[in-house]
Amino acid sequence: MSTIPGMGMVRGMGLTLRRFFAPKATIQWPEVHADVAPKFRGRLQLLYDEYGTLKCETCFQCAQACPIECIDMGGMDTKGRFHVHWGPPETYGERREESAVRRSGRPVADHAFTRFEAIDLAPLDAILEAHDYDPRDMLAILEETQAAYGHLPVAALRHISRVTGAWYAMIYGTATYYRHLRFEPPAVTDAPPAGAAQRELEDAYRSALDTALGLGGRPS
Amino acid sequence: MASFLATPREWPRVLTGHVDALAANPADLDAAVRAGAFDGLRKAVRDLGATGTIATIAASGLRGRGGAGMPTGAKWRAASAQPADQRYVVGNGYGADPAVHTDHALLSSDPYAVIEGLVVAAFATGATQAILAVRADDAALVTMLEGAVLAAEEAGFAGEDVLGTGHAVYLAVRPVQGAYMLGEETVLLKALEGKRGQPEQMPPYPTERGLFDRPTVVNSIQTLAAVPWICREGGSAYAAIGAKASPGTALVQLRGPAGGGIAEVPLGTPLRDLVKLAGGPGPRPLKAVLVGGPTGGLLPAELLDTPYEFDALRSAGAHVGSGSVVIADDRTCVVDLARLLTRFSADNACGKSIPCRIGLRRLYEIGDRIAGGRPKPTDATLLGDLAHDITASGLCDHERLATLPFTSGMRYFRSEIDDHILRSTCPAGVCQPIAVAAGAAHRDPA
Ligand SMILES: Cc1cc2nc3c(=O)[nH]c(=O)nc-3n(C[C@H](O)[C@H](O)[C@H](O)COP(=O)(O)O)c2cc1C
Ligand code: SF4
Ligand code: FES
Predict the structure, then answer these.
(1) Of B280 and A88, more confident
(2) Contact flag B333-A212 (C-beta cutoff 8 Å)
(3) Which of A202, B127, B176, B437 is the most buried (most CB within 10 A)?
């Protein structure tokens, strides 16, 4: 606490003066663009409006887009109605797991570090060469990579990104979309083939439809 | 080998005409040629020429069998009119609806009809690349199709010099898998480009900016399989079949209590006749027909005279969609069925558009509430408003159509929905834990 009256104001004015003459960080957008890394997505932050309520619409756009599926929505809406996420309150790790299974049908294994380990790239190089390092063949490249390694190791995706010139985020976006692609080795050795994820969903739909029609599980 | 339901003798067989001749080995090119395969292509390249072929297809009135019923002639004309260094033709054989096997049946019983249709489409639109996109699940079918494409190229029906005319049409079979939305044309093109499968706003249509930004014709393989017949027999012969505004035949996947199967039916056939083809409603009274697959509409018994045809179905609140016609008897609860279908649509939404991703989820949550015995009095209104908003803000047809089970249910079975909401009863005795209406608890224990 300052004892001299008015000292606070003087200090404040001093700061103002210093800032006034300091070089400015303002960028004349859109004429000038800041030089940022291509994968920069801005700072992740939840904002509040002037009434102090969260601006988030729980539209799940961010959760859907999040490449490592670490974002999910949870809680109640403003009228205390529904839980917006689909499970009991749980730890962050559990929620992340559950959210991943619910949205992509795949668990996110917690081998956070092993997945980054270096792998033998020789089989991958052969695949890439066969496709002429063409990013337009990305799905075929990813499918063959999965066939060669049993899953899509992060190191492989990085390598594919480096040699094809496709952004890692784009490759990741493609690989997370298709249900037959997976990022971790199957937990059991006699795991069903990768394409089974989609087929399971379709079988479930067929039998649910039959049940709703009162037909039981009769084959069509 | 797929088998088709027997249909009345007088019904024309445009798509299944060669099936018997190829029964021994559908990939046998010689047998197919003896049965008349590639006669249409010959006529197109020798007599009609590119513009003549498009004119013939336009005159036939052929409309896309992928669901929306876009006029095929107009689509081809748009693609060929677009200046480009490269054009593509894509045969959409993904067959997204899990309960419909018509594409598989067609490809596995007469692959050359589809291949011929692809080559004709490529020739007519000036495309040199034609891609047949099929499901990767059935590896044997993929191998068979690859063999058939090779055989057709070796025989000069495709490849660098189609029938000695100097036109090149290179064919490729591309197996795709991993998402329901792959059936939608812009999503399929994304997959073929090796990208994440999310639809694009249309317009611009793929005929303007499609695969790798080049003009692209995407046709259902059922549409393509009708093309050889039209080239061979003429546009007016095809226009004479079926309904006036929706000529020709279509493959329909029928399913009901008494059985079902795949049948080739002339468009415009009343739903009543389709129910009969599926063996009738069975011992119980018919309650509704679900027309159009997971995004289809529920039509009541009073509407059985509706012709199975693009426009009539749309105005009745259903659509041709995946070509599925499902018969539901009185054991089916409309709310239960609609929420199941909506849940499927929501689970398979690609996530790009918010009303689709969240709106459909909210829609089936309302259905869950109603079926689960804790509805709100306003749920019927909410259902209608939400469905309207989702449809109005649709990015792709999936979103615009996925509300149909509920909106058609509200339109024709409102009293049953009100029974759930206002009286806590499920007339069909399906929904729990709602009190079951006395005398209606006849659901089989099976
Ligand atoms: C969700 C959704 C799924 C679709 N699935 C298929 C399909 O499985 N097969 C198909 O041919 N068309 C499907 N379509 C329609 C295609 O987008 C496209 O309109 C069609 O392939 C064009 O061919 P056509 O003009 O011959 O109908 C689907 C559309 C939507 C919105
Ligand atoms: S859920 Fe939607 S509104 Fe909420 S933070 Fe994510 S993107 Fe933004
Ligand atoms: S399916 Fe992609 S936005 Fe609806």
Answers:
(1) B280
(2) yes
(3) B127
Q: Record the pTM.
A: 0.82
pLDDT tens track of chain A, all 220 residues?
557 889 999 999 999 999 999 988 888 878 888 888 766 767 667 777 777 766 666 555 676 566 655 666 655 444 444 444 433 334 455 555 565 565 556 555 444 445 567 889 999 999 999 999 999 999 999 999 999 998 888 889 889 988 998 887 788 878 888 888 887 777 666 767 777 878 888 999 999 999 999 887 544 4
State the total domains in chain A: 2
CATH number at residue B410: 1.20.1440.230
> Measured between CB atoms, does A79 come within 8 Å of chain B?
no
A56 CB within 6 A, ligand 2: yes
Q: Which of B186, B212, B239 is the last residue of a domain?
A: B239
**In terms of domains, do B358 and B377 share one?**
yes
Ligand at minimal distance from the CA of B394 is 3
Residue A166 included in any domain: yes
Q: Is B362:B389 a contact under the CB 8 Å cutoff?
A: no
Burial of A84 from C-beta contacts in 10 A (0-12 / 13-18 / 19+): middle
What per-residue confidence (pLDDT) applies to B174?
97
Judge if B261 and B225 occupy the same domain.
no
Sign of the Cα torsion A205, A211, A216, B1 reads negative
**Contact of B324 with B292, CB cutoff 8 Å:** yes
Residues of chain B with C-beta less than 8 angstroms from the C-beta of A201:
98, 180, 347-348
More confident residue, B236 or A60: B236
pLDDT of residue B161: 94
Domain total for chain B? 3
Q: For residues B160 and B215, state if they share a domain.
A: yes
Residue in A176, A195, A209 nearest the CB of B137 = A195
The sign one gets for the Cα dihedral A162, A167, A172, A177 is negative
Same domain, residue pair A138 and A172: yes
Closest CA to A106 of A169, A174, A171, A187: A187
A106 in reach of chain B (CB within 8 A): no
Parent domain of B86: 29-239
Centre of ligand 3 to C-alpha B394, Å, is: 8
Phi/psi of residue B444, nearest 5 degrees: -60, 140
Q: Assign residue B200 a region: left if phi > 0, alpha if psi is -120 to 50, beta otherwise?
A: beta
Q: Quote the domain boundaries for residue A99.
A: 61-112
Answer whether residue A85 is part of any domain. yes
| pLDDT for A76 | 47
> How far does B358 lie from chain A, in Å, by closest CA?
7
**How high is the ipTM of this complex?**
0.87
User: Does residue A98 fall inside a structural domain?
Assistant: yes
User: Smallest Cβ distance to A220: which of B136, B255, B430?
Assistant: B255
Q: How far is CA B68 from the centre of its chain?
A: 8
pLDDT of res. B312: 97
Q: Which atom of ligand 2 is found nearest the CA of A65?
A: 7
Q: Which of A136, A197, A203 sits opposite B212 (nearest CB)?
A: A136
Find the B53 Cα to ligand 3 centroid distance in Å.
Answer: 35
Distances (CA, A) of A18 to A11, A12, A21, B319, B414: 11, 10, 6, 70, 71
Mutate to test the pocket of ligand 1, among B100, B131, B184 (most ligand atoms within 8 A of CB): B184
Query: Cβ separation of A140 and B194 shorter than 8 Å?
Result: yes
Interface of A with B in 123-152 (CB under 8 A): 135-141
